[in-house]
Amino acid sequence: MKFKDYIKDRLLYIVIYFIAISLVITIMMLDIIIRKERLNIVNIIYGFILGSIALGISISIEYIKKKRFYTPINYGLEKDEDLQYIYNIPDNISNEYSFLKKILIRDYTIYVNTLERYKKTTKTQMDFNNIWIHAMKTPVSVIRLMLENEKDKDIDENTRRSYESIEEEIEKLSHGLEMALYTLRINDFELDFKVEDISLLEIIRNVINENKSAFIVNSIYPKILSRDDIFVKSDKKWVKFIISQIISNAIKYSKVKESKDKDIIIKIYKEDENTIISIKDNGVGVPKEDLERVFDPFFTGINGRRYLESTGMGLYLSKDICNRLGHSINIESIEGEGTTVSVIFYSGKSIYNLTNN
């Protein structure tokens, strides 16, 4: 607390003090007048001066004492540090401030204990979710393998279609588990990335291969319009997740549209030294009123409510990961015509630079 602020807080007391002095001097003057003695103005002025000096000294002493209390508090507020700065408040300033320090320390102790309990509970829950997701991925892989083996046998067309439908649902389950796993991992993002030169073409082909059943069942054809492979510095695992979410959405909103043209066009190209992956579908598109909110968490919009397959987390996580990696993601869409999602890898800007500064 600055001295001028301290004085402002005590203006009322200062005014009352001078009113009290004035009343005392007035009574003294009336007494002198009643006794018909000579009134000495110098003595009155002298009284005011002495009173003002006494007031100034008392205010200064009190301010110096209280400054010892407010200095560590101001330091903690300005530096935005941990609340442990309250332990630096001196003892024995006054009974009032000793009492305030006890309250601050007690509340801080309660806060720390509550926070530790929350962290412990959250970590236990996250560890359980992590183990459970990994446990569920194994039976999903086994079921997928069994379906592929059954499809290779001599079966009738209806049975084959049933297997394909089951396989499509297994793909949805697999994508859901993958998204849940990455949602947990993003909390420890700084501990879970590896920067290296990655092949964008290789990542795209891997994602397409992982979604081949969904492409085949829904008669959707991916087309990669890039002859040259382009390498960027980033994290392979996280970039693959981003591309997977975009392609998964492209499939999801292309299959529900009654159209023969269900191609998904994927381009990798350079623009102003930046590298761009553009993924364009001819699906149902995003309504204009939803376009600005597609990156908000849990926002499903009109399409999500209409087709009941959206979690509202895919694009949100993709945006968050791009920000952390130093990339960006943009979306353009026309309702009824399709959507184009672009991931931009800026030249000279990536998490590689951030971690080496």
TrEMBL record:
Gene Ontology terms describing biological process: cellular response to phosphate starvation
Catalytic reactions of this protein: ATP + protein L-histidine = ADP + protein N-phospho-L-histidine
Its membrane topology: Multi-pass membrane protein
EC number, UniProt record: 2.7.13.3
TM region positions: 12-34, 40-61
Compartments (UniProt record): Cell membrane
Domain Histidine kinase: 131-349
First-level EC class: transferase
Keywords on record: Cell membrane, Kinase, Membrane, Transferase, Transmembrane, Transmembrane helix, Two-component regulatory system
Keyword Cell membrane in annotation: yes
Origin superkingdom: Bacteria
GO cellular component: plasma membrane
Keyword check for Transmembrane helix: yes
Any one GO molecular-function label of the UniProt entry: phosphorelay sensor kinase activity
Classification via PANTHER family: HISTIDINE KINASE (PTHR45453:SF2), PHOSPHATE REGULON SENSOR PROTEIN PHOR (PTHR45453)
Record protein name field: histidine kinase
Source lineage: Bacteria, Bacillati, Bacillota, Tissierellia, Tissierellales
